[in-house]
Description:
The complex is a heterodimer of chains A (about 290) and B (about 260).
Chain A: H1 2-10, H2 12-26, H3 35-55, H4 63-90, H5 92-95, H6 104-131, H7 148-172, H8 175-190, H9 197-201, H10 204-208, H11 211-218, H12 220-232, H13 255-279
Helix pairs in contact in A: 2-6, 3-4, 4-6, 4-7, 4-8, 4-12, 6-7, 7-12, 7-13, 12-13
Chain B: E1 13-26, H1 32-38, E2 46-59, E3 63-67, H2 74-81, E4 89-94, E5 104-107, H3 120-130, H4 135-149, H5 164-177, E6 182-186, H6 194-209, E7 213-217, H7 221-227, E8 230-235, E9 238-244, H8 245-258
Amino acid sequence: MLSELKELWRFRELLRQMLAxxxxxxxxxxxxxxxxxIVPPLLxxxxxxxxxxxxxxxxxxxxSAYALCGLIPWTFFQTAILDSCQSLLAxxxxxxxxxxxxxxxxxSYVLSNMIxxxxxxxxxxxxxxxxxxxFGLGIPLLxxxxxxxxxxxxxxxxxxxxxxxMSALNVFYEDVKFLLSTLFSLMFFCLxxxxxxxxxxxxxxxxxxxxxxKLYLFNPISGIITAFRKTILEPESPGSFxxxxxxxxxxxxxxxxxxxxxxxxVMVAIAGYSYFNYKKWQxxxxx
Amino acid sequence: xxxxxTPTAKYEYAIELRHVTKQxxxxxxxxxxxxxxxxxxxxxxxxxxxxQDVSFAIPHGQTVAVIGKNGSGKSTLLALLARIYRANSxxxxxxxxxxxxxxxxxxxxxxxGFHLDLTGLENIQFYGALLGMTQQSxxxxxxxxxxxxxxxxxxxxxxxxxxxxxxxxxxxxIAVHTDLDxxxxxxxxxxxxxxxxxxxxxxxxxxxxxxxxxxxxxxxLTAAERIASRIIWLSQGAIRMDGDTAxxxxxxxxxxxxxxx
Lengths: 287, 261
């Protein structure tokens, strides 16, 4: 794997060009351009806030800050993997004719999504930690927010590994792309994105079998979203999301769990890259 | 051809193939369903041998034409040289004059690597990087790339509006301006109109004179006669004949008349 990384480093200029091209053409023919990266998630938040507050009568103050804390990492996770999944077939003409470290292609899609991901956090903090605070809304600054770069790094490793893995698989089985998009739309409701993991913790089944909660957070993306929430926001009782749980205390940040999540993410990154390297010479040998 | 392995000849060859065999697995339409069902069946792998025990060496600065009928392994050979495929067995050794990894520029078929929504200039940037050019060398050569392609009035417009000839010209122009050691050409020498073709021939001459190694596939024997000093004749994945242009062409034409190619 070291020699593969060295080769990748030799081609860093090409990776930069690919990334620049990917960012350039994404909104090339659209009138609103970059706004398409910002406005849809904001509209999503408006709808979810209506759903959770209006329909399920949650009382959490600042629910939009809460929801975005899950939506930003989730959007990165989902779009980066789906984008890179089709990337090799979309650039098939190039890899069939020119030598290049083939991982450059999915990686350029991961990186372009990563840039949007980081920009998403910049906007998030600008809005909630600066602008809205002038109006007495927003979120207070916490020392634990300093963990943000670490969690971003862990998620980036996870996403890179899965993207390489899935993009290589998708060359041989195009079902993978469809399977993933189905899976993601279901996971959106099962994972703690619109609600905190604490709500799941207090559910009857998990109170009877506490190890199930560990299993629930074992899925690294749940662990990462939960880590973002617990470090960026003040503890919020699950009671303000589900009336039945009023008075229950919020769970503290579980650092042991986060260490496990980080370890899994590193392992996924290594496994994904190894699988990609194992398969990459066969990509063009499709009949 | 005899392979010279004396130490003094270490960097003599730009390209060296030692007993190279390339086989393809014939895979039938891949789907997850088939893969899952297939897991319970005994594996039956069909192999297709595209090249069988091929050995030759090309010294620096030589221009070699590869001929043979369709399916004789010409394109597979070129793809091995471009490092698109890995050989199943044997060795493919590519070197520049210093014995380092050479810069290889493949001349691509129409459109591969270009993005239609980007302008000519943006495509030059990207395509140049794809062929291994650094930012500085690209900038210093930008003017001559544009001038050579005769597309000055078009480079600021998206490729979507270009005709095929213009795209080919741009591709050719970028490829020949890279700092290449080895040029690989797959049947695309017939680029554009008469005057541009002449310009291409001149450029190829110039590259030959400056010691670049060129390998090209062709069906046009006259092109081989004009440009190459050596011809490799492939037949059913093996070298049928390898020698100077005149003698291989004579044998090839003879076989062609007798219908034994």
